[in-house]
Amino acid sequence: MAEKFIKPIREQGIIISKTYKEAKPARTDFNGKEWPATEEQYLIQVMSCDEDDFDKEYGIANGTLVDYPVEQNVFIKAKFGMWAKVKYKVSQFGTNLNKTPLSLELIDKGANN
Question: From CA 77, how far away is CA 82, in angstroms rounded?
Fold first, then answer.
């Protein structure tokens, strides 16, 4: 099926989790299936929305949840509940919406006051 649209989106969001995935060596499972080596990954999960869907009293009404791969120094600085500027790409294939993370930038506390 042909792709219907691709749209880059920039929004502000709130960090809701951080995940560290260890590097793993290449291996073969008991069925003989080969698994390639994987590098370590630092992931930050952000719930983001456009400004129309954010209310200071009630929070995020219609948000998007995306995992962003980041460098170790950004991962260390990031804390639960911090604000971030994010950019991701949305593409639609049939009825499926795919979200591809593009960038994440932490926002200082002073920028939200």
Answer: 10
Taken in order 27, 32, 33, 34, the sign of the CA dihedral is positive
CB contact at 8 A, 42 and 74: yes
Name residue 7's amino acid.
K
Which residues have a Cβ under 8 Å from the Cβ of 56 and sit 6 or more positions away? none
Compute mean pLDDT per 10 residues along the chain, 113 residues long, and list them: 71 93 93 93 91 74 90 95 92 84 86 46
With a threshold of 0.90, does the pTM exceed it?
no
HSE-up of residue 73 (Cα within 13 Å, Cβ side) = 1
